[in-house]
Design a protein that fits this description.
The protein has ten helices and seven strands. The chain is α+β, with helices and mostly antiparallel strands. Helix 5 packs parallel to helix 7, helix 6 runs antiparallel to helix 7 and helix 7 packs across helix 9. The longest helix has about 35 residues.
Amino acid sequence: MPDTVASESREVWRELAAEGALDQPEPELGELITDLDRRLPLGVVLSVVVQVASVLPLLRELAVRSSFAGEVLEEALAGKAIVALAVTDGAAPGSDLLEAQTSLRETDGNWLLDGEKRWITNATQCDHALVLARHRPGSHFTSFRWVLVPVEAEGVSNVPATSELFAGSGVGHLRFDGVRLDSDHLVGSAGRGLPQFFEHVSTERFAGALWARSLCRRVLRETQAHLQARGWWDNAAIRERFARCLVDLRCLDALCATDEVGRTDAMVLKVAGAGILDRVLAECASLRGADAFRDGGEAQLRAEATMWGIAGGATGALLAGIADHADDLLEDGG
């Protein structure tokens, strides 16, 4: 990734801190995401939103018992540090976190971290990684804890996951080869890693739906202007296709019109938002024709948006979780 692109993400982070946009425990995500999407590349938006929606809330909770987490939180809120949330494991298929093998073991009074985290936002441009690590064997909910790792520590390496998409997101793979840590870097209670992750991932999934809504609205406005400029807007067939996109957008508006999102609703929002965004971008790309393949065009946005749709829980895994709550969702009033 070009240094200038990584620098843009860091500069945006500093600007948001200076504006006080990161100081509130529950920032106005919708307004923030809409503003970021309006003026910044998708990858830079991804870099910021993952931190605001997931990393900062987790650090606030972990800082209650960890002075080191508190120090890193202060640096992040001041715009001086970028923190990557490293959850998805190289050894686990998809979103099966119970099978994650990145491990933490005690030796000679210190701790050693080994493993790989893949497709991690901010991996190539972070100062610290908040790592979900296995501290004991077995596929159990209590087998994991949080470790806060300085990326300059010996044994930490990273590589970009892609050279063309998500510019500014720092998406990459983190590798930990015998990284020696002291107890200060164990920032969460043993066994609380996965429960804390699932407590906070709902906010990230809600943020994903808010971002999908902002991106849909922006691309639809641009597509309408394109059609009008070329005299195609009055074509009945084109207007019908565009109108179906507007229906999808209004459905997403309705789903996002809430002040509080539970775990099940967050899964529903994530799946619905990803599906609607893909349909809208596909139709807008079709309506624009070859122009959709310009740099930053709808075809590229669709490829990048697919990754955001996967991050925080692949659709298949989320649908399985939604099915588990079928009885609740089928009750009157949902």
